[in-house]
User: Fold these one by one.
Assistant:
Number 1:
Amino acid sequence: MIDRVAKAIDERAEDLVQLTADLIRFPTINPPGEAYTPCAEFLGERLRRHGFTVGFIRGEGTPGDTDRYPRTNVVARIEGRGAGPVVHFNSHIDVVEAGEGWTVDPFGGVVRDGRVYGRGACDMKGGLAASVIAVEAFLAVSPDFFGAIEISGTVDEESGGFGGVAYLAKKGLFSRPRVDHVIIPEPLNKDRICLGHRGVWWAEIETKGRIAHGSMPFLGDSAVRHMGAVLHAFEEELFPALDRKRTKMPVVPEGARRSTMNINSIHGGQTEDFRPGLPSPTVPDTCRLVIDRRFLLEEKIDEVKSEVVAILDRLKRERAKFDYTINDLMEVLPTMTERDAPVVTAVAEGIRHIFGREPDYVISPGTYDQKHIARIGHLHDCIAYGPGILDLAHQPDEWVGIDDMVQSANVMAIGLDVLLNRAGGH
């Protein structure tokens, strides 16, 4: 089986490159959510030609969903010859903006020097293409498998996944008995299995003030100065405390094995759209700060929040006129699939065969759509595995290696054989 599927993938190597390039040429930029529908339809039509039943599901009412920018997801399924496990490959089709600094067309799907270049090549259209080729090769050599295989192209992962996997999970598409095993081909390196991710808490802190004329600031109360006190307390108290926390989770890179917090944005006073040279001479009566707190499996979400709130409450007691509000924007608990879970052992066997070594087991520093599969679908036999180097994601001249995609496709196909033909008991 393994030799035959490897031959089938080699025969499809050019198709793999072409599919990756074709997917990159859809500028599925999020925000606002461009080209979702044509990209989903392109993928759906290809899978329909290979015998899949294809459905399109719009994430109606989710953030950003409009008639101009519909949140269009594609979900395809092919049944085996009888009852058995269901393996689902989930990839997001959205990409971040191209940004500056490119030497090639970011949406040209340029193929050069054994690589495919373009925005989303690494994160994660190369992984999507590799999973499609893996499944097509598996079906070619094992048409009598038991169970079912699903492939989905979902949206909005780059902005939280609420119009994509979260929406589908609420409809039961990522829960048993419909699905048993999920592989997400995120770019975590071809010889590593990602078991999960750290937790995240996003929140917006607003400090209050009183507006007054800028020439007489003593008649007002600057919300920006109050926020400065918050930042000073974070620097002196919170950041050193977070830096002392460590996890046993195998998070990569090494620096992410501790608690971290990023200041995502800060804005106070007049709006940023004033005409240059004509600022308003006022004391700012409001200042807003967005924090991005990443936490560990050993931490509780209530403790994470209380560390911040305790500082704010102390400032309210000690600093004259200090007042604040804090609003949750998003919270996701850490997740980590067990190493002996079926999908982990199946993909590990593929890595051993293709690379002749034990896989590295890692945890992602940031979240991805596994969070929704775990918390909404209550399905924990889920991993991220795919080609590509995570450090290249969101960078200029993003690329994915052709050999990496071919090797990863082989690993995925071997994983399918383990889960459907061997572990399935047929």
Note: Residues 121-141 form the longest helix (21 residues).
Number 2:
Amino acid sequence: MARKKPEGYLSAKDSRRISRYNRKVTNALEKQHKRKHVPESEYLTQMKDPNNTVEFDNLHSYFFTDVGTVKAVDGVTFEVPTGKTVGVVGESGCGKSVTSLSLMQLLQRPQGQIVEGEIRVNMGDKAYDIAKMPLEKMQEIRGNYISMIFQEPMTALNPVFRIGDQVDEVIKLHDKENLSKHEIRERTLKMLDMVGIANTEGVYRMYPHELSGGMRQRVMIAMALACSPRIIIADEPTTALDVTIQAQVLDLLRNLKDKINSSIMFITHDLGVIAEMADYVVVMYAGRIVEKGTVEEIFAHPCHPYTIGLMASKPVVGKQVDKLYAIPGKVPNPVNMPNYCYFKDRCEMCVEGCSGDYPHEVSVSPTHKVSCYRYYDGKVGESNG
């Protein structure tokens, strides 16, 4: 949007124009968000498939910054089926966490806003559109129905409160059974025991800094699962952990998902974790989905050059190489995205059509879809748009 000088600086005039535009857009969106006593009919919707827990439909989440609009999530569409795990993969800054924060309505406002699209959540007897929900109603769903395990437990846990008080608070906030103080404490101890913490009474009285990284991560999982949510968002829950603890946490998540019949949206960089955990995989690049399919399809037949590059860059047991493969080049500037395929400048498999508009989605199989000109010849599947 902004016209830049050759040396990359914005003029004062451009900067003022951007600020005026940002204020106008964010004020209008904030006004919509903060309304009170909104009738339920405004955010009621219908699921396209009742077997899905969540459906993202053409989601656009932008950040209105001083240098222009960052299209962090730019037209994302995928589903999270009930009882399944969907892995969201991609390099840092591709929009994975922003997609999950949009579902929780936890974008850093007023700069971060959902500007277009729907996030349909299946409530059982009805469905809500999260993108249109007012803040007061969202408080009832967040934590109770949709829960998130954050990436870094040391920054997510409050350092001045004991572990027990923090887990108690989650249960108290969403308590529909009018539990007594003693019953809430018992429920917290049960949750800590469920996530594999042996000394539950001791940990209940401890502060976050007294626990190891693995223990803090377990506490975060206990907090997220305290109200038996229908959907769990795991935002790189094993990044800071060593391999043995990582395996335990993944086993724990898998077992708990089956125990409370939840769906998991699993965000990670680690393809090994995805292969082990996920039923479906969504590959994101620069705010868009470049490929999606079942875990077998993505790992056995990766189609998009970016997915192929990701697969080639991981080490293989028993295969000796001098140097691991790395995808050349860098991600385009998110403020000034090109109007052709975002991956074109880094791609080593370009074909004739790549200089055209951004490629639309092509079906390789009923469940496997890719956005790439290499599949436009009609031999592999028909295009959707």
Note: The first helix runs from residue 12 to 33.
Number 3:
Amino acid sequence: MATIKPFKGLRPPQELVEKVASRPYDVLNSEEARAEAEGNEMSLYHIIKPEIDFPVGTDEHDPRVYGKAAENFRMFQEKGWLVQDEKEHYYIYAQTMNGKTQYGLVVGAYVPDYMNGVIKKHELTRRDKEEDRMKHVRVTDANMEPVFFAYPDNAALDTIVSRYTAQKPVYDFIAPGDGFRHQFWVVDQEEDMDAITQEFARMPALYIADGHHRSAAAALVGAEKAKQNPHHTGKEEYNYFMAVCFPANQLTIIDYNRVVKDLNGLTPAQFLQALDKHFVVEEKGTEAYRPVCLHNFALYLEGRWYSLTASEGTYDDNDPIGVLDVTISSRLILDEILGIKDLRSDKRIDFVGGIRGLGELKRRVDSGEMKLALALYPVSMKQLMDIADTGNIMPPKTTWFEPKLRSGLVIHKLG
């Protein structure tokens, strides 16, 4: 069962939230962060992407850069740009994209739950990326950015959340760039906090939707601190890390598409012929074609769109991994025809989040940079949870969640 707790959030004053709030550290590079933070000394990028305070080209993994994160974090608190709540709270964070709103509970998730599998993963993590975030957590002694969890639908929690969200939010703004709305409320009634804790205690599992590296880093640093503390009781703040938990039925997974540099020595006609072995191939012309259901793919090649439908017998509905469209396309197109064996390391393939649209696929092929594009039907939350429940791992670049969590609305200190 899932253990959570409220915490004393460190937050910007209401009038500063839009200056402090930023995109997550891993969705933009150093130069983009530098540009977005230009002229804004309060931007959280000075803490989560502190290389922007050094000359262009400074390695983001330089020890001085991590030191700068800690220094800037202290400075933000001293200047009152971040102020800690006096009491422990849960928080509610709502995001609105394209007219659809999802409501998340911001909680302290339990480090042992990550270690023992109550918090379920569906992706492999890379040790170098874990280590980068671990250094950041160690040096700041805080979870600067939340991880993104899903939980099984729960009517009691929906009732509590709707009662608070009927009130005026503490924060309410439209983020620049993406135009998504972000709202935030403080859960301040003891009976509501107790009820939230109890409802989570009935849940057999929580699911990492996005932020596998942040989850691993936060949990590993928490476990490390427990081991180093001779007076460890299990009640210390470092036993918890910050997560925003959304009901699974509110979340949207969008497509995560592929672009490939060459046809592995085949002509376009030979490539299309090779597809006939496992797919029903239909030419759709020059108008962009989007996959209409599971096991249907869109191919863009030589200025034309094609529908590819996987033939019966090419997948097993009872295999939670084998039935995924990423698996079908990886096995029968990328590997068998194009010779791409390892999606993590092969330089001939790149990945495009569906938020960029089919136009980005077309652009990258038409420019000559890529030879073909493959658009996939998005994975469902049920598929993700089934895979996590069975202890399986999704293939690389399977899920893209949107909107991304805004960083800087609340921070969790470990000490």
Note: The chain has two domains: 4-248, 256-377.
Number 4:
Amino acid sequence: MKKLTFVLLAAALMALTAVKTTNLSAAEAAGGTNWAQWRGPNSQGISTEKNLPTEWSDTKNVLWKAALPGKGFSQPIIWGNRIFLTTDVDGAAAPESHKPPKHMIGEKEFTHPEWDGVNRLHTFKTISLDRDSGKILWEVVSYEGTVHDYRHKRGNYAAPTPVTDGKYVWSYFGSEGLYCYDFKGKLIWKKSLGPILTLGMGVASSPVLHKNLLILQCDENLGKNSFIAAFDKKTGKEVWKVARPVQTSWTTPVIVKTATRTELVTSGNEFLISYDPMTGKEFWRAGGLKNNAIATPVVGHGLVIHSSGYPGKAITAVRLGGSGNLDNTDSIAWKYNKGTAYVPSPILYGDYVYLMNDQGALTCLEAKTGKVVYEGGRVPVNAKFYGGSPVAFDDKILLTNDDGETFVIKAGPKHEVLSTNSIGEPSRTSIAIADGKLFIRGDKHLFCIGKKG
């Protein structure tokens, strides 16, 4: 119980080996020019595009800069000439009669001095912009009113990233609902999932698509009400729902196709679990990270690699394609216990996994074995990395800190910083890549970075 309590309190400080694998994404059929979900194609933060800009400022190589209403940590997603994102606009004071839920650890009520947000009214919006000009094409109010629970003061209610299939776009706001729009901004359906309680830190897990299903991982507080569920993407009707024996998390699941089947892989404190995405049937499970599950799993070389960075450091690489309880079997390929960040996900690019800590120092591991290639690869400034996750393209890895500075790192077994770039305002989101351009969401603006001329 002491260990469990410690991990929960820690959450409050924020919010080819055996099997050949292929990630699936909403943009799979359309190629690499779209960035249709959290971490883009394959949910892995990797673009196959070449000749993208590697130098910029708040004016240099800025094709356009669009002012955004409110604030949000959701990553912009792109399909064709459309950009979608979500935002939260703070409003007037909430009625004094509005009371948030109590959070209990055992018989003791849990409170935190960094809680925020519940004392005000909020307007949650879904926004579409023109990719080529930055013009806002439409913005619709998804939800307006009081919010069910707190958020951490460094957090945001518009943290989950939307997802699109090229015809519809889905926005998720935790306790305040799930929304489906067409590309003209018309509401197709909306659905309440009930209260999603994450110790007053806010939600962050983003929806993922698989065939006709929209899938959400909803891990709550002490795990009494945690679940993962799939909904018909066209109607919002629940197709399946499975209880999860894990406490609160902020991680997004990944869809992976192996040689024999497709797996829906999830991280968690107590367990790592793989499901059949069409039915919710469990394929396998292994012991969890024993720390806060925030990072999205990375996939490659027949492995799915789970990680966590707080309160301890934990990485577990699992061979895909297994069944039952994988603990103490050769399905656990390797483990490591250093180098990870609290919030940002790692990235698996080529033969290597790159871990980043909260100061941006990189650790490079061999993906197949977990062998250390290098440690302590530094960026040239002191900075905090509590928001954006790395992205990669053309043998380069991009790390963005909370001040809006992006460091371009040479991929491979030797650490080298190629350039340092700033948009001139804070940023807490990951870069999106599409059509030869980088899309960087700052505190107040969305920047489109591209090579002029």
Note: The CA atoms of residues 1 and 106 lie 9 Å apart.
